[in-house]
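Task card 7
Instruction: Convert sequence to structure tokens.
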Amino acid sequence: MGYGFGREDVGESLLRAIALGPSQVAEVLAPLVERAWKAAITRDFPVLLPLWSAQAVGQPTPLTLDVAAAWSGLYLAAKLLDDLQDGDPSILGPSTEAHTDLNVATALLFACCACLGREGGHEPTRGRLLVSEFARYGLAVTAGQERGAHMDESADPLEWAWQVLSAKGGRPFSLACRAGALSAGAGSREATAMTEVGMCIGEMIQLLDDLIGLGGDDPADLRTGSMALAYGLSVAEGADAEELAARLAEVRSGRREAVAGVYAKLQEMGADRYLRLEASARAVKARQLLLDPTLNRASSGWTALADTVAWLDPVGRHGPAS
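Output:
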């Protein structure tokens, strides 16, 4: 039957890593990490992506649980830092001070290292490889996050936005699937397929997030750039370009009520259709990757990945994975 676990096991594994420190350290950090977990992790997706990927390529191992726990710590840390950067309410609670978010995020990064460094009876070489993979992907995500905060006025807006989206949106999920596959001993072909499936999933999530933002009045995306805004800046000509520039100037002068006008203009220019089509194109690509004959299509993990892709596809969404 193979090695299996649920999201509760992942959370417990992460908390065990927090408890490695002196008792007074665990007393301070464990309740905060548990609070972040309960606020942000409400279903199996995304924390079981490593397990599903391992099942799709072979048999999960105890190392797969370590990978899932490490990735969940990285995911929570990134969420805390991203919300702090964007000025959004913390998952720890709206009254949480910035220093608490920073300290908990830092603790989660160290816990991620502790999870990957456990003595689990697995091959040391495979464990070292995964530490390197986490570091490599984590650095790329961090660079994308920083780049996304400062739009390069000299670059093509759409090209720049895609680079940022792939780095900060696609790579974290790409790592989840790749690391899960590697923990099960995947070969190069299977690992590459899972890497690209994860990238598609992450990019779809970011595109759908931008799509949802078009219906709101949050100026954060207009300050840091979004795919919808990049699309508008890329295709706008003549009167459309002048109107969009004027509305953006109003937003940047501090007029929050002007934000809805920018989003309305972007929708008028077809940004919502562009985002849907791009998200659906990634769903098509992910489905094609999952048809690789080397993958185990009879496994529950393969089914969960396919269901997740179907859920995220804006052309035919039917509800979340379990």
